[in-house]
Every structure is written in C-alpha cells, then in structure tokens.
C-alpha cells in the first residue's frame, strides 16, 4: 500500500514522501526516513475524485504530534516551529503561528492555548497548566491522547453498529413510499372496472390511490416540508435536548445512555485528578459532558464534597454511580488513588456498554428486517387481494 508521509529531519527540515509499505509499522524503516521523526501518515486512496473538505483543527492530532516531537528531544518552541512549517491549511497555520508568537513572548503553553477557547477546552487547558507546574508535559499529553482514544471507542462502536440498521430503515421507507405514492395510485385504476364489492382494506388502499392521484403535488410538498422541518428541528439545541430526554425515559436504552455519560464523566475526572487538579475543580470542568439533569446532580455533588462529604458518598447521594463504581471509589479514597480508580471504573462501564451494543445490534437488525418485510408485504397483498378474489370467483 502507498502512504503519504510527513516527517521532520533535524529542526527546520520538513519532508513529504510517498512510501510503499505493507502497513504503517513498516514505514519507519524506509531508507529515506532513517533518522527522521514521523509526524503524519496518510494512506493514499485511488478511485473517483472526491470533493475537498475544509480541515478542522484536530486537538488530538496536535497533541499526538506535540508528544512525539517532545519525546524526540526537541524543545517546545522547536516543536511548534516544525508544526507551523508542515501545516498546509491556512487557518490552522495561523493558529499555530499565534501559539508560536506567544511562546516567543515568554508565555506558557497553557496561557497561549487560552486565546482559543472554541478549540482548546477548559479541560485541555487545565491539564496542560497542571503539567507545567509539575514539569510533566509529556506525561499529561500522553494521558490526554490515551484518554481521547478510549473515549472515542464507544462512540465509534455505536456509529458503526447503527450504519446498517439506518441504511435498512432508509431503504425500507423509500420502497414503502414508492409503493404508496407511485404504484398504488396507478394500480387503483385497474380496479375501477372490476364488478362487485372489494375487500374493506383493499377499498381503503384504492381510495388512498385515488386521493394520491388527485393531490400528488400537495402530498409531495408536504412530505418534503416534513423532512425539512425534521432536519431543522434536529439542528436546534432545544430539540436535541428534548430528544435525548425522551430516549432516556425508555427503560433499557435510557439506562445505557446514562451509563455512557457516567463513563465519560469518570474518565474525565480520573484524568484531571491524576493531573493534580482538585475534585471540586475537576467536577466543574466536567459538567458539560452530561445531560442537563445530570449536570444539576453533579453540581450538587460538588457542593457536598466542598462541605466535607467524601466523593463516593456524594456520587451515591446524587445517583451518579453504580454499585460497582461506588465500591471502587471507596477503595480509591482509602488508597489515595481516586483518579486511577475512576479511570478503571470508566473502562468497566465501557466494557459493559460494548457487550450490550453487540447484543442489541444482533437482536434489533433481524427485528427491523421482519418489520419492514411485513409492511411491504402487507401493501402488496392488499393490492393483489381483489385479483385473487376475482380469480377464485371465476373458478
């Protein structure tokens, strides 16, 4: 396979090469890359041309490159110089250049990152700031990279598991709409000359076909308007909050959504605590990861901790823990390793979610196929039922 590799040779030289390699692991031994620090690897895909997409600044990619170059022995300013030199996107290059200017003015990296609150979250800036006080920037970056990769695992699993059901549902809906808006109206004309009474449901289908033929423009316009309204509603924060609250009321699914949010919360708190940030401060930073009702509970838990209640008791009191996580928090409090226990708790929650997602996908997909088959089959049977009765009467 062919890869596009960006690498640093020394401090000021940036190389961009196309390399043939069976996998990414074998790229480093390529003759032209010996003694170089690899910054970025992109597989080259051949096929139809694609529309060019505007690159958004990736904090995770930035952290990976920063960590790699710092481990290679470069200073922070040299690393930013290299990142500016290799960046091709004009907007991202301007951001990195601003960071470089701040560093040359003697400001800390965390102070420089604060100028871009829309890109670098308070959580990320606080992590970098705490590491600067202890002199462990590489350790903090390594923790952040591992944290972000683990946090994305469940999200990617959910997305990949929902692709096939979504395509199946979309195709089933399109076939049903095609039958109801195109086939049935034309099929209904066949029954105009058939003598005798039609079956009740076939009559309804025939009346629908006649109605659809007479008001085709209005029906198509209404359908498109409904789709547009649904898309607009989902783009509004209030609608998404209402949808999430509705999903959380579903007994089994709602509990899993809550578990997913708690997993993100515990992983974030664990990383912040291991970075030297206090529990109350970490809770205030992590509130934005939760739904509104859980944010209120977490704020109350933070106030209780500030008044002297232990973290495990506060989480139990406000229903922000499970039976297992509560016990692990108590163990972490006794051993002085609360941050590590929170990260382990998040991993256990992720494992439980992964098992449930696999089980739900295997159960839901055949049920969805059966439902779509029944709907389409029912429409077809109702269309042909008068013909079957006519044939039986002739016999």
Number of strands: 3
- Radius of gyration, taken over Cα atoms and rounded to an integer in Å: 29 Å
Secondary-structure content class: mainly alpha
* SSE arrangement, N to C: EEEHHHHHHHHHHHHHHH
CATH architecture of the largest domain: Up-down Bundle
Sequence stretches where pLDDT stays below 50 over 5 or more residues: 46-54
Helix share bin: over 70%
What does this protein structure show overall?
- The protein has 395 residues and is mainly alpha-helical.
- The protein has two domains: 1-53; 152-395, Type II secretion system (T2SS), domain F (Receptor-associated Protein).
- 71% of the residues lie in helices and 6% in strands.
- The protein contains 15 helices and three strands.
- It has helices at residues 59-71, 76-86, 90-104, 109-113, 122-134, 137-188, 200-214, 216-234, 237-248, 251-274, 279-286, 292-306, 311-317, 323-335, 338-394, and strands at residues 2-9, 13-20, 37-43.
- It has a three-stranded antiparallel sheet.
- β1 and β2 form a beta hairpin.
- The longest helix has 57 residues, at 338-394.
- It is extended, with a radius of gyration of 29 Å.
- The protein starts with a strand and ends with a helix.
- The model is unreliable at 46-54 (pLDDT under 50).
